[in-house]
Amino acid sequence: MEMSLLDTCIDAIRLLFSGNTELWSIIWVSFCVSMTAILISAVPAIFVGFLLAMVDFPGRWMVIALFNALMAIPTVVVGLTLYLLLSRSGPFGELHLLFSQPAMVIGQVLLCFPVLVCMSHAAFQGIDRRAWETARTLGAHCGRAALTIACEARFSLLGAMLAGFSRIISEVGCSMMVGGNILGYTRNIPTAIALETSKGEFSQGVALGLVLLMLALVLNFTLASVRGKGQLI
Amino acid sequence: MGLELKIDNLVKRFGTREIFRIEQLHVQEGQSLHLKGENGVGKTTLMKIMAGLEKPCSGNVSVTPNHRRWWSDRLHPDVIYLHQTPYVFMSNVVDNVAYGLKLRKGNRHDVKNKVQQALAWARLEHLAEQPAYSLSGGERQRLALARAWILAPRLLFLDEPTANLDRRSVSTVAELVGQLLEQGTTIMVSSHQSNTVTELCNRHLQLEDGALHEVESLTQVKRYA
Ligand SMILES: Nc1ncnc2c1ncn2[C@@H]1O[C@H](COP(=O)(O)OP(=O)(O)OP(=O)(O)O)[C@@H](O)[C@H]1O
Ligand SMILES: [Mg+2]
Q1: What are the extents of the domains in chain A?
Q2: B208 Cβ inside 6 Å of ligand 1
């Protein structure tokens, strides 16, 4: 029997608040995998962004262009590559990582790393070179001065992390290929939505979609409020 | 032992363009120097090199004695360079002034006292809690001076400290610089013309056509100009 759109939505909301363990385990998987991925990539990616903004070396612009290009790679392509590497006959087949959460984390790290690098590079470029020089002349060693610069760019860096997180929390392609959509283990929000929709079960899909929407709203409003009410230039 | 700065055959180029070539300069503790030159001759570049913020293409600058530990990548702890237009960190005035002192791991109570003294010295007490970016040009210049003063530098580079200031702010800055000189700080001030601050100096250097000459007196500086 066809359900109307309204019925689907009502059903979805009921599902969310009824403590459906299947639904919440899916949300939990999504959250754990993506948080782990972002926590692993944040510091090294921001460091690379910092180096690209502060240190001149031959071929610097090529590295920047490369990361920009990587940012635009479709998630399924990353998924396919990782699949080939991790599958039993692949070079890392011994590790037996395919269809596991660690595989999903690796995939998401690969996906968000370029986003974090490019956006933190842009964030550091927005900082005046005098900030570095001021910190140095007042006695900061290089590491401390870098921390000061990161602190000056804190809001843009948070924005970069948010952009990286948005890329991975909502991506289907890679998680599907290397995670395998195993319920309670590697089924996350996007892969669940894809599956339920293909089965014609819309209410769970809508419920999970609502969770993603809420998450996006909460994160963005939080960032906006710590940043201030958006100063006019 | 008195602080000494020595320059030997210093050359700076940007790309293929040579900015300056300085054979010798010897500065002793307690001296006050005025570095004069037209726009774009390289005053800022020279001062940044002397302060260790920029690398020369050849030749070297030595500031002795240097108590920096051999493994540390800090710059000389007694030397501070103040920008032509000071940079203020994205926080309030107090945190800006405390920045260098916090790095030296003083205890928190001392830091607070010192910051209060520095603010009083630079007449910034009434602005203590204000975000530093809201300060006017003159106030920023005083903030930069307080931020340096608190670290008791022995050699201070002031890059055009009076550019863009009105006459009253200039005389305030001159007064603060005068006090630093009385405390025995060695100071080098750059400017493209003589003013109240540079009149406090007892040595005058002219950077012109990529070379540095010593000029005997103010009148001679004026003749060059
Ligand atoms: N990073 C850089 N790359 C290339 N050229 C530079 C760089 N920094 C400075 N220059 C050039 O070196 C010259 C000297 O610059 P500098 O800022 O030292 O001059 P200045 O004497 O301080 O001038 P002003 O009185 O305007 O402050 C200028 O012609 C400038 O264009
Ligand atoms: Mg200059």
Answers
A1: 28-188
A2: no
